[in-house]
Amino acid sequence: MHTTDQVNIFENKKPKLQQELGQIIRVYPALIWNLAIRELKVKYAQTILGFFWSIIRPLSFLAIYTFFFTIMLDVDTEGMPYALAALAGIIGWYYFSDIVTTAGQSLIMDAHIIKKHAFPKLIFPFYRSLIGLLELLISLVIFFGIQLFLGHPFHIYVVLLPLVILLNMMIGLAVALWTSALSIRVRDVFHLVRTFLNFGMWLTPVFYLPNLIPDGFEYLLYLNPMAGVIALYRWVLLGGSFPEWQYVIGLSIGLFFFISGLKAFVNSQDKAADFL
């Protein structure tokens, strides 16, 4: 480890964001990965079905949504198989939700490590954002299997999928970082955010398409960062026309909160041990 890294870690000074990110990139990638793997093992250790829950969850929700929105309501899917259109939304939303609910309380859940070690605390939301990545990849395997079964064509846009996943992660961390920074002092913040997630799923075109939004309310979609992310998932996975440019508004808002969340987290982390 470089001397400058030791000074930044052990001196009682507030590290700058660039310095801390530099430390994490140079010194701690292996630690982040090992923490994520350990947490995954703990998550499924006491379950009978283990990783099969990662398959059951998206399929169960897909079955429910398919029943209501195709049999009961007969929604317009603009030529896309409903199962694929809905699953593309489920993939994006549940990764976002997993990041918010796990990384959003990372300082509290990892308090036992934080009190004993002097790691940069950004490690904790970062490694927890990787935990849901496994379930996202499993959901993608299910998606491609259904796509082959239904005979829906693959598109060249799928090569951009890693960029969409990265954007999905950043939007999730935007909420998680602010939640984690604020909930150090006020634990109610996390519960408020979880309540927001329950409503947010219905306000985001996860299991329905934007064409169900009444005329005049489209701006609510364009202000919603996750609406843009899900539109991009459907585009890269199913093809069709490129999402409307207005989604840039919400995505820009999400990226702004991601950058400001990084700064807020770093500025608050020195006081974390006093409240944990």
List the defining traits of the structure above.
single chain, 276 residues, mainly alpha, 14 helices, 72% helix
The N- to C-terminal Cα distance equals: 28 Å
Structural class: mainly alpha
Report the helical percentage.
Answer: over 70%
**Tell me about the biggest sheet?**
none
Rg is 20 Å
Question: Can you tell me about this structure?
Answer:
With 276 residues, the protein is mainly α. It has one domain (3-275). The protein has helices at 3-10, 17-27, 29-45, 53-72, 82-103, 106-109, 111-114, 123-150, 161-183, 188-203, 218-222, 225-238, 247-269, 272-275. It starts with a helix and ends with a helix. The relative contact order is 0.14. Mean pLDDT is 81; it is low at 1-12.
Secondary structure layout plus pairing:
Elements: H1 3-10, H2 17-27, H3 29-45, H4 53-72, H5 82-103, H6 106-109, H7 111-114, H8 123-150, H9 161-183, H10 188-203, H11 218-222, H12 225-238, H13 247-269, H14 272-275
Helix pairs in contact: 3-8, 4-5, 4-8, 5-8, 5-9, 5-10, 5-12, 9-10, 9-12, 9-13, 12-13
Summarize this entry quickly.
The chain has 276 residues and is an all-alpha fold.
